[in-house]
Amino acid sequence: MTALLLTGLLAAQGTEAPRTLERLSNGSLLYVERMETADRVSVQLWISARGTEERLETNGRRHLLEHFLAKAQDKFCDESGVFMSAETTREAMAFKVEAAPQRLSLAIQAVKQLFQPLKITQAEIDREAATIRHEEALTPVARQFSRAAWARIFGGLRPDPLGDPEVMRTTTPEMLESLRKRMFASSNVVITACGSITPSAVLRDLSPFLFALPPAPPSMTPADAAVTAPPLSVGAQGVALAVKVDGLEERETMGVLALSFAADQAFPDVQLMYTPSSLPGLVMMVSSERGMVDRVRGMSERQLQAGIGLAQRWVAGIQQSPSRLGSLRGAMLAEGSGLQVQTLERSAKSLTPVDMTRAMDEIRQCPVIEGLQ
Amino acid sequence: MKLLSACLIWMFAVASQAQGIRVIETPLGTDGLEILQAVASPPEGMNARELGAWQLLCVGMLDGTDDFVREDIFGFGGQAGVAPRAIWSNDLLRLQFAAPKGGESAIVRLLESMLTKPTITDERLATLRTRLTAQFADDWSAALRGDRGDYTLPAEFVRRFSRRAFRPESLTLVGTPGVTRALKGRFDEWRPERIGADFRVSTVTRFRGPDRAKVAMLRGPVLKPSTGEAAKMLAMVALGGGKTSLLHQVARDQEGWSYRQEALLLPERSGWRPTLILAGADPIPPRDVLLEALKARVSTLASPDLDRLRLLTETAFAGTNPLTPFWLSNDSAYLGSSLDRTAWAALCAHWGVANQSPEAIQADMRRVSLVELKEALTELLESFR
Predict the structure, then answer these.
(1) What is the chain B residue with the closest CA to A291?
(2) Which of A193, A194, A192, A189 is CA-nearest to residue A211?
(3) Exposed end of chain B (fewer CB within 10 Å): N or C?
(4) Residue B1's pLDDT band (boundaries 50, 70, 90)?
(5) CB distance from B256 to chain A under 8 Å?
(6) How far apart are CA A291 and CA A305, in angstroms?
């Protein structure tokens, strides 16, 4: 409440703070940032997986839930001139609503409507599970390599969020509704609103809504003890380098990212995969050409140094895009990290050739994931 | 009035340069970036060897020229924080550069070198062949890429073909004011010799993905952005322009045939190619089954649907609806950035349709009635093959 009062005071004086993080007493978080040059707004709901982390026997239920929640808003969004995308990661579920500034209130309404109880039947679950089977078939090669690398490096404790079709088929409406209630508990909820907005107005609208959310029921995460991940093979040609990194706030992580950007620029066949996270994760470089490993590990000094500028550009790109900024803050806050883009900017700007050499040491020692010959 | 002014200032031709290159100037965007778009089309009716040569040239465009290595191209061409791009299909190449103020000459020099002095050596071609024959990252992208040419070509063939493919008369340049100033005189000495067509027979194949998904594509006759085509453009929005679109509702939600389904206007040599593309785990039903299912829904469209489609069109042009049918290449949609606006202008200029700004097209589409929409939808659906 203090943050709200402070923002109101600043607004009254005509010097409204461009960004505010409000931590409500029930654990919900609300981040708002006015971006002066933005021509759009991005309102995002991030639901932490805290208390609903998946194990192999529950793998896919969060993804299934995400489909139903987003689908329920399709008509409203198309008739309101706002666009919603949704994704499920290992650590959170995200709903991102993009709109022109004059449709901000409709974007906020779409996000609020996501909190409504599910009304679905078993037949609808069966049909949506079939849709996810289609989605799985379209999984890009890089994602397949990533899935195999995660299974190899992290085991079954953090299975791929796309999920197991068998688990989805045996899910009932009641299971999904209790999962929804647990996930949408106040302490799991983060909303970000970035772009051409007036922060105080967004805070006034959303704070009371978040404040009314119920607290968290007990955790639904199964015990870790029985988890054993089966080894996964990749059903596609190619090869991948999988570099284990700590959180995004670590300087070493920024160094590895800079190197991977350099590889991406130097070699058109290289595809990158990294989900920004404050937790340990993987930076993947994937190629259908097996020679990629040697080429990346043998990059020249000049090629490597280009990565520093590319990392700075990556961060600058986040700062200029309401959607990307909202995603970064949402993902971090859902994980309990207060990492700000300004910290990333400092980190990228302070990279030196020594950091790039260290990153190359990591790349030379990291696992190589093999695809089909 | 505001709309009219936007149309008037959208683009205007500057004096055509020597050698017949079409040069069009566009205003600076709000970001102040100097932008250069170059669009070229290869000769029509290429055989598999020429198609292979075209693809080798296009895919290697940013890998270096006789003057600049790849690091230079990205270094000089990326000073504005936007990497240069070479976006290609089997009958269109678009080169895109952005520069900060003062960097116009550098990007113009890069363009000149790429078009007139591409590095074509046996070693380079070996690398490019490997890249082009590698498996695509996904089946959707591979399907959109289409036919793959014959790459068993000597360097000399590709070198000669480059003079047939890149010619002043088949080139359109669109730039912001600083860029058009920097272009003056730049191509005056460019007089590539005439090269005849190749008549040897060899076969094209298809680009390949991992072959995990089944992809179906239907294509209609090419249309150009114009007032007369507004109803068909709105029909494309009705087919794929949102999650309430006919394709999404019928193919994904009602029939369970696909996960991803879109209606795209893909740029080709002479205009947009209306394309329906669907992908899922199982084979997509035949054309007639799909089209009949879509046609059955056309008669149910009512006034509220027209309002929704107008709104979806508005959001598509504002860049807040990525399910827009308006695409600038086979891998990127028009999303309203200053780069996208110049790319749009470049395509319009290449197709010989001036003054068709996104705002003008949108205004035309707003005037389409429900009856006209239904007629256009029916006609369009029947034209898909």
Answers:
(1) B130
(2) A189
(3) N
(4) very low
(5) yes
(6) 22
Interface of B with A in 277-306 (CB under 8 A): 279-282, 304
Query: Judged by CB atoms within 8 Å, which residues 357-376 of B form the interface with A?
Result: none
Chain A residues whose beta carbon lies within 8 Å of the beta carbon of residue B139:
138
Closest residue to B137, CB basis, from A132, A265, A271: A271
Q: State the CB neighbour count (10 A cutoff) for residue B213.
A: 26
What string of H, E and C letters represents the secondary structure of A80-100? HCCEEEEEECCCEEEEEEEEC
How far is it, in rounded angstroms, from Cα A285 to Cα A142? 8
Nearest to A74 among B75, B134, B244 (CB): B244
Q: What is the pLDDT of residue B116?
A: 96
Structure tokens at B20: 């017949």
Give dist(CA B245, CA B138) in Å, integer.
24
Q: Residue A109 and residue A113: Cα distance in Å, rounded?
A: 6
Cα dist. A257→A65, A108, A307, B265 in Å?
32, 33, 8, 35
Q: B99, B123, B117, B78: which is closest to B35 by C-alpha?
A: B99
Residue B262: band (very low, low, confident or very high) from pLDDT cuts 50, 70, 90 = very high
Query: Which residues in chain A are contacts of B314 at CB distance < 8 A?
Result: 81
Q: Is some CB atom of chain A closer than 8 A to the CB atom of B138?
A: yes
Residue A74 CA neighbour count, 13 Å, CB half: 15
CB pairs under 8 A between A and B: 131
Contact predicate B317/B6, CB 8 Å = no
pLDDT 10s digits, A200-209: 999 999 999 9
Share of chain A above pLDDT 70, in %: 93
pLDDT at A224: 59
Does B134 contact A at CB distance below 8 Å? yes
Long-range contact list for B124-127, CB < 8 A, 24+ apart?
A: B124/B60, B124/B63, B124/B64, B125/B56, B125/B151, B125/B153, B125/B155, B125/B158, B127/B60, B127/B63
Cα separation, A233 vs A149, whole angstroms:
9
Per-residue pLDDT at B111 exceeds 90: yes
**Residue length of chain A:** 373
Tokens 């005509």 belong to which residue?
A: A14
Q: Tell me which of B57-71, B209-223, B345-359 is least confident.
A: B345-359
Do A320 and A304 contact (CB within 8 A), yes or no?
no
> Which 8-state DSSP code applies to residue B14?
P
The answer to whether B244 contacts chain A (CB < 8 Å) is yes
Amino acid residing at A88: T
State the Rg of chain B over Cα. Answer: 21
* Tens-digit pLDDT profile for residues B322-341: 999 999 999 899 999 999 99
- List Cβ neighbours of B131 (8 Å cut-off, separation of 6 or more): A268, A269, A289, B59
Residue A304, CA distances (Å) to A263, A296, B60, B255 in order = 8, 10, 21, 50
What is the rounded average pLDDT of the residues B161-172?
95
Average pLDDT over residues A45-67: 94
The DSSP code for B351 is H
Q: Do B320 and A133 touch (CB under 8 A)?
A: no
d(CA A22, nearest CA chain B) in Å: 27
Are the CB atoms for B82 and B33 separated by under 8 Å? yes
CB contact under 8 A, A74 and B243: yes
Nearest to A269 among B30, B134, B318 (CB): B134
Enter the DSSP assignment of B358: H
Nearest CA distance, B337 vs chain A (angstrom): 10
Torsion of the alpha carbons at A183, A187, A189 and A190, rounded to the nearest 10: -150
